[in-house]
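hey so u asked for the seq, here:
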Amino acid sequence: MGRKTKVAVAKPAWHGRERLVLLRVRDGALVAHVLKWDDEVRNPSELAPKDVTVTDSEMDEALQLVDSMTTDDISGYQDEYRKALEALIEAKAEGGRAAARTEHRGQGALRPGRRPDGRPAGERPQSAGRARP
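ran it, structure tokens below
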């Protein structure tokens, strides 16, 4: 594919349903781009915001709020999910039981035997694309 600058289309089963994937060569590696089926693509007009009237004072307040929240230093942002996952893997590798996180920051809290979304590890989501017996 790389020599002829062509791409391939594949239909792998992934998360309980078929996906449409475009495969191409980039920098010597095979890269997969997950595409959307036509029924998964929304009409952009559905996403357009409704027309609203904003006063000058409301716009000034919004700009002040943005300015007060703006920062050039993003060093405080860290991948908390990855840290928790690495700690869980390390605890399991040492043969111990990983402790449950007591502080919950949204869906990212990891607990032993559970997926990040809180479902038991062996449970499939209801929308897996196939009927349950």
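The chain is about 25% helix and 15% strand. The two ends are 42 Å apart (CA to CA).
lmk if thats what u needed
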